[in-house]
Design brief:
Layout (H helix, E strand, L loop, with lengths): L4 H25 L19 H16 L6 H29 L5 H4 L8 H9 L8 H23 L1 H22 L14 H16 L3 H10 L1 H19 L9 H5 L6 H20 L7 H11 L1 H22 L2 H32 L3 H6 L1
Helix pairs in contact: 1-2, 1-13, 1-14, 1-15, 2-8, 3-6, 3-14, 6-7, 6-8, 7-8, 9-12, 10-12, 13-15, 14-15
Length: 367
């Protein structure tokens, strides 16, 4: 099946946004960097790049895995592969727990992984807790493990899966109001509630199974003014975020929190995705230019790039944050992170190309 480059570009945008946010936040919170940062829609908004990343991953699962002979087996196999990758990333960053100053633990959550190590490892292995940024990988593993159930519902009716997903998400929102979202059963530290975040994965999975991206892009092409309205709404939400307008709402935390994929969080993530789709529609005649090709490469290798970025962000933010080079240090840290990420993506593309170019075993033996 021929890939649609626009989907890869959207995934690439999600990865670049994650890299920007993940390098900016620790420099500000841990190393007191007060200079300017490269703005992102999620930095000045009510959602995170993880929402776009999870949504696009769900869409690809629906579009690709459901066409395979055994989609349930493929999903579980992929969950196992990511589980191993998650363990490898943990093994790489755990030594930092012994070297990092205690002040960094308030954000990285490294020290709990080694003190006491056995209990922390059990929490990690059961997908209950993780150091910073590894929670997204844990979420993806859990969602892939739930995908066989989603496929069973989808085969009966897409509306059945959508209804069950929405009801489950709504139940988590009610539980967040009754018990408060930071209750251990609903969220634990950096963890993302799987039963709330499944909506951002399974609704796009349905859309991917129906190949709705063709219709969605066609809708935006027929209505170019819609993109302007969406970006206007994003500008308004950015202004609201800057002045913290949400504080005047009742149940502010329950409406705007990340762990439970709250209503405002979910709405803003949909707005961000629509804004990027509309922007790519406006620029459809220029998508062969090299910036978009680089984004597409990152998108094709998004999971590998994201996994590799976690230890890189730990090291780069700590290193450049300690040097205290100001804005130049911030730019150099991000440029290094982006350059290494692009190199990983290019390696992944070459590896896939070699694999496709390799002659089939039976054909080579016959020759």
């Amino acid at each position: 099946m021929e890939r649609d480059q626009r989907i890869d570009i959207l995934r690439g945008i999600a990865i670049v946004t994650i890299l920007l946010n993940h390098i900016s936040i620790p420099l500000r919170t841990l190393f007191h960097y007060h200079g300017p940062t490269i703005p992102t829609l999620t930095q000045y908004g009510y959602s995170s790049a993880a929402s776009l990343f999870v949504a696009m991953s769900g869409y690809m699962v629906g579009m690709v895995y459901l066409k395979r002979p055994s989609p349930m087996k493929a999903a579980v196999k992929r969950a196992g592969e990511l589980y191993v990758i998650n363990l490898i990333v943990l093994a790489v960053i755990v030594p930092l727990a012994y070297a990092a100053p205690p002040a960094l633990d308030s954000y990285w959550k490294l020290r709990p992984m080694v003190e006491p190590p056995f209990a922390a490892l059990i929490r990690f292995l059961t997908l209950l807790d993780a150091p910073a940024f590894l929670d997204v990988l844990q979420l993806y593993v859990a969602l892939l493990l739930l995908t066989p159930v989603a496929i069973l519902l989808l085969r009966r009716s897409p509306l059945l899966l959508a209804g069950c997903s929405i009801l489950l998400w709504a139940a988590m929102q009610v539980a967040g109001v009754v018990f408060t979202p930071d209750t251990v059963l609903l969220s634990n530290g950096h963890s993302l509630n799987v039963l709330a975040w499944q909506l951002t994965f399974f609704l796009p999975l349905i859309a991917g199974a129906l190949r709705l991206h063709h219709r969605i892009f066609a809708w935006f092409e027929a209505r170019p003014a819609a993109t302007a309205w969406i970006w206007g709404a994003l500008a308004v939400s950015a202004l609201a975020r800057i002045v913290a307008a949400e504080r005047v709402l009742p149940l502010t935390y329950e409406l705007v929190n990340r762990p439970l994929n709250s209503p405002v969080w979910l709405f803003h993530s949909v707005l961000v995705l629509a804004g990027y789709i509309g922007l790519l529609t406006w620029l459809r005649g220029h998508l062969q230019l090299w910036p978009f090709q680089l984004l597409a490469s990152l998108g094709r290798n998004s999971l590998n790039v994201f996994a590799a970025s976690i230890p890189l962000i730990y090291v780069l933010s700590w290193g450049f944050g300690s040097l205290d080079w100001g804005f130049a240090g911030y730019l150099l840290a991000f440029a290094t992170l982006l350059g290494l990420s692009l190199a990983i993506a290019a390696w992944g593309d070459r590896r896939k190309h070699r694999k496709k170019a390799r002659p089939p075993v039976a054909a080579s033996q016959a020759a």
